[in-house]
Design brief:
The protein is an alpha/beta fold. Helices cover 30% and strands 22% of the residues. The protein is built from 17 helices and 33 strands. Helix 9 packs across helix 10 and helix 11 packs parallel to helix 12.
Length: 732
């Protein structure tokens, strides 16, 4: 019976796909990796001589926006023609799209039927135009024009994205349920069926956008969690009844952007922590329905072909506003995972191109898209200057290709690199004045200009952003004077970077220690003060270290600190909040257990839109450390859970020999299957973690602080930090 049910569902889904293909008079597909959508909303076209000037202005605006942006698709999100003689007005508009050879889709608003045509009649009229792609996906469903459109790859072979269009209806008949109607349960069910069918057909979720007229209640409630970017100049006029559509989007994790109209003085978007964007278009039509304050314009959305990511902005005849890049957190797989890692020169100084390619392939295997390489120029505590590229600051410099090898490999492998600017180790002494700090920022500006000249044209995709190397803490920057100094220093770099590379984001990654300095509330307030005066751009990134590996925080209070810092970030519209998770244990400079790491990921993920780490390449890479950590994490990324691992076999024997300077210990274990290292205890205290590297497990240790009276025990442990039984050491 179940098999018959599945066959019927499959046939029904295939039939819907055929209907969709039949409804399309042309195939939507990416062009060189991009697909551009122009959202028009609330034209409020009134077909009357009294409104000829406003209609002409609307017509001119649409035509100019199409000619400037050259979209692959125009979407009109409702309240298009709102007067009698509607057929004439609709013919003028669709004729414009035909003249510009631009396909279009219409979702109906609450005013479109307040004319001499109902929505079914409008759809029938639209269907006579070869550039119309609007259709009814299901006969008998609530509303008109509920449909979906696939977008194909640049080669036209495979579907890469989905676009969903909903009729959000009109006003309610029974005002007990509020004023505006809601998207009905059969429409939500239809979306769920199509979404699941697409996943079944393709073997994975296709990223998607949704368009309709009346906003969801979540367009307001999302603002309680994340700060909006753009104009909010009137109340959100949503339905009072929550239809569950937003919940369906979140549960399916395919729709990553919802675009609406209706509220003429709102054009904001909310990035809900990297899960989904809720956004308004800009009112396009010149006729006013009430007091309207925004210039007329459009929203532009450009999709990426090979990632659940898009860029969007508002455009009017004067320019572009609120430019924003969105990428779905951990690609919709449903589990928190790293999207990038730091890497430092001492690890990579002798890497050739082949070694870089191996590392990049490994990072891509586990879903990473970013690498943070820092710094480009270093002044050490002794005043010695070194660089990772041929810098004018290094005398008698050799053609150092360390940074370029990184960019060269990243360009090939599709990794985006944040390049760290300069750093001077005097920073840690806190003995400098404002002039010294400003001088360091000016050095950073010159380095940024050198790097742009050397590498941006050569590696345009890989050379993605900047890393501000100076790490700010919660102890030395709490005074008003110091915060103003920090803001000025940041602005020296931010203003220069905005001039030479306005599209490249800047990331900074401060740290905190709950044992000293300010508490979480004070640290958040300090950053609010800095954000208020710093010239951060939309897309810049605040990525605090979680400080678990270094011991500044612990798991019990980690959520509290990130919650407070999120409030600070919300005070700066457009600033992104990422988490920098530490994958090491500083006490022994060893790889952290995956049990601890999973808790870090889960806690930090609840507050941020992206996760990076310090540092996978240093502590988790199979080419550096024990490959069992990487294998288990790769399984987690692929399957959504860590593999089962047994308690490791205990050490079979351990011999201690007293020497002139300390104690030499040697041991053996018969079964190394789940062993990644050994815990060494002296007099009941853990004094050393001896961890495997890419060369294998250690089997000896020289304890210079031990003596013949010391009581030693040793155990083995696995990737989750689970220990075997301890055994006592035998003295020789």
């Amino acid at each position: 019976m179940e098999m018959k049910k599945n066959i019927v569902l499959s046939l029904l889904f295939s039939f819907v796909v055929v209907l969709s293909a039949y409804a399309q008079s042309m195939k939507l597909q990416f062009q060189e990796g991009c697909f551009k959508i122009l959202q028009l909303t609330d034209l409020h076209w009134i077909e009357s001589e009294n409104y000829k000037l406003q209609n002409d202005s609307t017509y001119y605006l649409i035509r100019e926006m199409i000619r400037i942006e050259r979209p692959d698709l125009v979407v009109l999100t409702g309240d298009v023609v709102v007067s009698w003689n509607a057929k004439k007005a609709w013919n003028v508009l669709v004729d414009l799209f035909a003249k510009e050879r631009t396909p279009f889709v219409v979702t109906f608003g609450n005013h479109d039927e307040e004319t001499d045509m109902n929505n079914s009649q409008i759809l029938e009229l639209l269907s006579t135009n070869p550039y119309n792609l609007t259709y009814d996906a299901e006969n008998g469903g609530a509303g008109t024009g509920n449909c979906f459109l696939p977008i194909y790859a640049s080669d036209g072979m495979r579907q890469k994205w989905m676009l969903y269009f909903f009729d959000s209806h009109n006003i309610t008949n029974d005002r007990s349920f509020g004023y505006y109607d809601w998207i009905k349960s059969d429409q939500v069910d239809w979306y769920r069926r199509v979404s699941k069918g697409m996943k079944r057909e393709h073997g994975e979720k296709l990223p998607a956008l949704a368009f309709f007229h009346i906003p969801l209640p979540e367009h307001e409630s999302a603002r309680w969690v994340c700060r909006e970017l753009g104009n909010k100049m009137e109340d959100v006029c949503a339905s009072s009844v929550n239809s569950g559509l937003f919940a369906s989007f979140i549960e399916n994790r395919d729709v990553i952007g919802v675009f609406v109209g209706h509220d003429h003085n709102n054009d904001y978007l909310v990035d809900l922590d990297g899960n989904i964007v809720l956004a308004y278009g800009r009112k396009t039509g010149y006729p006013s329905a009430y007091k309207e304050t925004l210039s007329r314009g459009v929203r532009v959305i450009t999709l990426q072909e090979d990632a659940p990511a898009f860029n969007t902005y508002i455009r009017d005849l004067a320019g572009i506003y609120f430019n924003y890049d969105f990428e779905q957190k951990y690609d919709g797989i449903g589990i928190p995972r790293f999207n990038g890692s730091f890497i430092q020169k001492f690890l990579v100084a002798d890497w050739d191109d082949a070694r870089w390619d191996k590392e990049m392939d490994m990072l891509k295997e586990i879903g990473m898209n970013y690498l943070i390489y820092a710094p480009a120029l270093l002044v050490d505590a002794g005043g010695r200057i070194s660089s990772n590229y041929p810098s004018s600051y290094v005398k008698r410099r050799k053609a150092d290709r360390t940074l370029e090898r990184c960019l060269h490999s990243a360009q090939k492998k599709g990794i985006k690199v944040f390049v760290g600017l300069n750093f001077n180790e005097r920073w840690w002494k806190n003995d400098y004045d404002d002039a010294w700090l400003t001088g360091q920022m000016k050095i950073g500006n010159k380095i940024a200009s050198e790097l742009i000249a050397l590498y941006k044209d050569k590696y345009p995709d890989a050379f993605y952003g900047w890393y501000w190397v100076w790490e700010v803490d919660n102890l030395n920057w709490m005074s008003t004077e110091r915060q103003e100094s920090l803001s000025r220093a940041l602005n020296v770099n931010l203003d220069h970077l905005s001039k030479i590379a306005p599209g490249m984001p800047l990331m900074l990654s401060p740290f905190m220690n709950h044992k000293v300095g300010s508490d979480a509330d004070g640290y958040a307030e300090m950053w609010k003060n800095v954000f208020a005066k710093a010239h951060f751009r939309s897309g810049d990134i605040f990525a605090p270290q979680d400080c678990i590996g270094a011991g500044g925080l612990n798991l019990d209070i980690l959520g509290e600190w990130f919650s407070k810092l999120k409030q600070a970030v919300n005070s700066k519209p457009g600033l992104k909040f990422w988490g920098n998770v530490e994958t090491f244990e500083q006490a022994f400079w060893s790889t952290a257990s995956l049990k601890r790491l999973q808790k870090q990921l889960e806690i930090v993920n609840g507050y941020v839109s992206n996760l990076i780490c310090f540092a996978y390449s240093h502590y988790n890479s199979p080419f550096v450390g024990c490959g069992k950590y990487h294998a288990a994490y790769a399984s987690y990324c692929q399957n959504g859970c860590f593999p089962e691992v047994s308690i490791p076999a205990k050490v079979t024997s351990c011999i201690a020999v007293s020497q002139k300077e300390g104690v030499k210990l040697q041991w053996s274990v018969q079964d190394e299957t789940d062993v990644v290292g050994y815990n060494l205890y002296r007099d009941g205290v853990l004094v050393k973690k001896l961890q495997a590297t890419s060369k294998g497990l250690p089997l000896s240790y020289w304890d210079k602080e031990g003596c013949i009276s010391s009581l030693y025990e040793i155990s083995s442990y696995n990737v989750f930090g689970e220990e075997s039984e301890k055994i006592s050491v035998t003295w020789e």
